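Most newcomers find our protein records easier to grasp once they have seen one. Sequence and backbone structure share a record, each on its own labelled line. Nothing more is needed to start thinking about how sequence determines fold. As an example, a complete record with its sequence and its structure tokens follows.
=====
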Amino acid sequence: MKAKTIALLLMMCIALPLMAKGGKGEARFETTTIDMGTIDENKGAKSATFHFTNIGEGNLVITGATAQCGCTKPEYSEAPVASGTQGAVKVTYNPKGRPGAFSKTITVKFANAKKGKIILRIKGVVKR
């Protein structure tokens, strides 16, 4: 935990000067919900990727992404996303021991953005 905090502080020290140039960033996601369909519990984890474009004037930095539970793991690039370019948030769901329908949320937080956070959702059905 201590290493993550230090890494986040270091990232902010690097990113804030970059963000100071221009206005605020703004993430436009292609979709905020992905239906992962039917997942076989025995075939392991399944991933989905949420793509977004920075439609704002300044750089956009993801400062964190947290999942509703430990069965869902978000990953994202820590590099600033320049205006007009794309970024992504990859979400991996582990279906082991979770048969039935699921709907999980992921909260993505941004620095220097018009919206400080956005909620993404994955859903589907796990079969045994």
Q: What stands out?
A: Helices lie at 2-20. The chain has one helix and eight strands.
